[in-house]
Amino acid sequence: MLERIAPAVGVGFLNRLWFRVPAVPEQTRRPRGELPTPTPFEVGGIRGQSYGAGPAIYLVHGWGGWGLQLAAHIQPLVDSGFRVITYDAPSHGDSAPGREGKGASTLLELADALKVVVAARGPAYGVVAHSLGAPATALALRDGLDVERVVFIATATDFTETLDQMQAFLGFGPRIRAGFLRRFEARFGPMDSFRMDSVIPSIASRRPLPPLLLVHDRSDPETSYQGSVDVLAHWPGARLETSEGLGHRRVLRDPDLVKKAVVFLAERAPADRRSG
């Protein structure tokens, strides 16, 4: 109806929906199993925890996620001699609202949050990033973040696909879509400029690409497995580990995949990790 009689209203509704962060109950955000004793911290309204000692590995959640969503990686990384830093991005989990206000955020804000936390908690030896956290990490790398090794799990790679999914679900037409894209571009630039195959060359033009491990379930209903295949083609030396039937979130808890991520991160870690 809005497509026909009030497309501008539809554009406003879609814009609010696009940047809205889904609320996750506190009970859902509780980690499964025992974890090492954390050291809580807060920087600029971003709340997180640090575990262990050694070179720092940062766990970066995706849209609507939370830091301890990647908790299955914490104990194995600590046992391997790493310090693990996890946090909730602005308007996510226990952190305060960011620039967009309560319950809203942007990909750029997720990238900035990683840079802020690294600046406060120390240099990043590695990053493990899930879903939208992967392109957020890529943007931070493009902007100068220095990381030795990177793991992307179920990475999001093309946001026009997300827009396609929303259009199919909500039923809006070309007028609302075009109006939303004009509004998006006026603020952030073309949506295609955030595609991973656009960001990767920008990183490579500024610094050598760090070693990358990609992890993706072939049946992931939220982020396309083909996206990780495409990243593999654009990121020299990258590796891809796949699974079947784990979907978008259980892939974070699979013991075999967690082990592969930890082994990858430890391959060329500093000899004396206790000094981190």
Q: Number of folding domains?
A: 2
Class from helix and strand fractions:
alpha/beta
Strand order of the largest sheet: 1-2-4-3-5-6-7-8
CATH class membership of the largest domain: Alpha Beta
Contiguous uncertain segments of 5+ residues:
272-276
Report Rg: 19 Å
End-to-end separation: 59 Å
**Name of the CATH homologous superfamily of the largest domain:** Alpha/Beta hydrolase fold, catalytic domain
Number of strand segments: 8
Helix content: 25-40%
Q: In percent terms, what proportion of residues is strand? A: 15-25%
Task: Give the overall shape, derived from the CA principal axes.
Answer: globular
Biggest sheet architecture: 8 strands, mixed
Helix and strand element order: HHEEEHEHEHEHHHEHEH
Q: Please, what is the average pLDDT?
A: 92
Task: Report the CATH architecture of the largest domain.
Answer: 3-Layer(aba) Sandwich
CATH topology of the largest domain: Rossmann fold
Number of helices: 10
Pick out its properties.
alpha/beta, Rossmann fold, 276 residues, disordered C terminus
Give the arrangement of secondary structure elements.
Layout: H1 2-5, H2 7-19, E1 39-43, E2 46-51, E3 56-60, H3 74-79, E4 83-87, H4 107-121, E5 124-130, H5 133-142, E6 147-153, H6 159-170, H7 174-188, H8 196-204, E7 212-217, H9 225-234, E8 239-243, H10 255-266
Parallel strand pairs: 3-4, 3-5, 5-6, 6-7, 7-8
Antiparallel strand pairs: 1-2, 2-4
Helix pairs in contact: 2-7, 4-5, 5-8
